[in-house]
Amino acid sequence: MKLKTYLILLNQVNEASFNIFKYVVRFTILLLSVSLLFSQWSSFKLNNNINSTFKYGGLFATYNSPVEIRNDRRIAISSSLNKELSNDGFSPSIESKIKISWNLSIKGKMANFSSDNRAIQMYGWGLTLKPGSIEEPSQWRILFDSGRINSNKQFRLSAMSVSIIKFFAWNNLKLNSGFGTNMVNVLSYNISDNYDFQTNYVSFGLSTKLFGFVLSPQVLFGSKINFISISIGDFF
Question: Fewest CB within 10 A of the end CB: N or C in the chain?
Answer without folding.
Answer: N
